[in-house]
Amino acid sequence: MNGIETAPDRDAWRNGFEARVLDGYRAAGCSEPLARALLERAVRGIEDWTVATDGTGWIAVEVTQDNGATVGRIHDLTVPRGREWAEQWCAERGAQRVEVRLTGGPGAFADYPVRGQNRMRAVVERPELPAGLTVRRLTEEECPGWYAREEAGYVADIVRAGALTPEQAKAKSDEDFARHLPQGYRTPGHAFYAMEVGGEVVGTGWVNHGFLPGVTFGFSLEVYEEHRGRGYGRSAMAVGAWATRQGGDEAMMLNVFGGNEVAMRLYDSTGFTVLDEYRSIDL
Length: 283
Hints:
By secondary structure, the protein is an alpha+beta fold. 34% of the residues lie in helices and 32% in strands.
């Protein structure tokens, strides 16, 4: 198709690919150490990718197993009208869906539904908590209830994003929680908070300091459903900024699943820029 063939020499492609990825992260406001740390994550497994060219641009693809599904991934695409070739290549190898990770806008994948975004915002040196809101650490006795609520919400978010079945989402949840919290409540670098108004808990926060160079990751900044619609969402973002500085970091990163338009609007309004966007379609 269009004279596209497997590239005999990957060096020219890889150098250009890594430079483009770095430029995308720098444009999103990342420091140089953070941009390079994100690049390292972006190129994991690169030796297993198949690289093809038509002489004018590049395509990088792979097929792998993910949560019980055979998944195709398009890692790079600079060949005009090369998407059809990449999708066909994945389908021929049994892929049930095709995923892409994007920086700098959807480009040729605007019709792929958004499944998730990583966002980031720099934090001022001394952020203040909103008046009337107090923050304290979760007690160890509160953690089992918090964990059950977080897990149920995480599974629901994955399913709503449309990428996985409920069974696959539960398996991913179990794997992710075990990886991020191997020691549970006592896992080093993680902090768990209760947000209170008038002595009543209105939400919780879970952050990981030093997740990447200078970055605290907000795994969860949740306002309980019965307290939503009162402006506490913006308060939760302020808590995240405060916690980031408490941990000695300069920027906060978080993830939002596709389909969560309310959260995306909140992050837009509070200055979180998109670092990566994940999209996929079923084949």
